[in-house]
Amino acid sequence: MSTLSEAYKDLPLDLQHIKPVDFASLQAVPDSHVWHDSSFGACSDEHENSLVPVIDLEDSNAIELIGQACETLGVFQLKNHGIPLSLIEEVESEAARFFALSARQKLKALRSPGGATGYGIARITPFFSKYMWHEGFTIMGSPVDHVKELWPHDHERFCDVMEDYQKKMKVLAERLTRLIFKSLNISDEEISWLSSTSNDSGSTSSVSTALQLNSYPPCPEPNQTMGLAPHTDTFLLTILHQTQTNGLQIFKDGVGWLPVPPVEGALVVNMGDLFHILTNARFLNVLHRVVVSGTQQRLSTAYFYGPPIDFILSPFSKVLNSAQAPHYRSVAVKEYVAIKAQNLEKALSFIRA
């Protein structure tokens, strides 16, 4: 069976689209990172606390509320999710320890041109004329091969925390995915691939998962640059922990850009392209971006979750009414990953029925 990591081997990037700059050495934003004002668009703060719903996973109406959020916004915040706060704090602490290393030290863990894991800038970078004020570290399974280059005698703690977090996030992602399918009246038999996530090993050999640590350093001219450019996520869903620094924004048609303010103890869950395809565009694959702060570093951890890389997906018949035709053809996850990696926002147009 193919793996997500193997899927990216066929999609190599140039080193210029992998290696971050030394942000700590910059006193001003270099031209390579200056975005024109027209790239930003105004961000509305109207109803900022009510437009993105906060849903309690233990609420008796959670299935209905989650389904509604997926249709209207494609994003919601989740409370009582079962991930221990102490573990989230450990992940944040270890991520901060990694990003606090010198630029020279972090480059020892640089992602290879054909690699999927390691230190580097966002994979969407080649689609934009300017670079983003961002650095990241991608993990699939154990990060030991990279971090032992950084901490030869002190990497066990980082590895243990990240592996434990991935196992627990995988359980949460499966639970959420089942609830979301239940909101569509999709039976467990129709999503049999989900059963592969039920073991305790945390193995990512079947379902497609990745953990992305993100750092958005404080910027001397925050209005001149972009933390993460507008994009949609590729897989079924993304579960995000963000520190208490604003920056994440979503786009809503007819409204514009809206902030997703941090909520204490909550995780942000957003729909990706694959759920958009499976629901025949009923669920929104929310467009989102990150802006940066002039005084504070913003950290986030994003857990991406999807079906096995060889899984063939197409819109569920149960979401199609008698007068509605499928918007998208059948496509393997691996094929769609390749299409998205080469076409970004135009990817869905390549699989329209």
What does it look like?
Its cofactor is L-ascorbate. One of its GO terms (biological process) is gibberellin biosynthetic process. InterPro entries: DIOX_N, IPNS-like_FE2OG_OXY, IPNS-like_sf, Iron_ascorbate_oxido_reductase, Oxoglu/Fe-dep_dioxygenase_dom. Keywords: Dioxygenase, Iron, Metal-binding, Oxidoreductase. The protein has 353 residues and is an alpha+beta fold. The chain is 24% helix and 18% strand. The protein is built from 8 helices and 14 strands. Strands 1-2-10-7-12-5-4-3 form an 8-stranded mixed beta sheet. The protein has a 4-stranded antiparallel beta sheet with strand order 6-11-8-9, with no helix packed on it. Strands 13-14 form a two-stranded antiparallel sheet. α2 (62-72) crosses α6 and α3 crosses α6. The two termini are 27 Å apart. The model is unreliable at 197-205 (pLDDT under 50).
Descriptors:
4-stranded antiparallel sheet, 18% strand, 8 helices, 24% helix, 353 residues
Shape: globular
The beta-strand count equals 14
- The residue fraction in helices comes out at 10-25%
Query: What is the overall number of helices?
Result: 8
Radius of gyration: 19 Å
Provide a compact summary of the structure:
By secondary structure, the chain is α+β, with helices and mostly antiparallel strands. 24% of the residues lie in helices and 18% in strands. The chain has helices spanning 4-9, 62-72, 85-99, 103-106, 144-147, 156-183, 273-278, 333-343; strands at 54-56, 75-79, 118-120, 135-139, 208-216, 228-231, 237-242, 248-252, 256-259, 267-271, 288-290, 298-306, 312-313, 331-332.
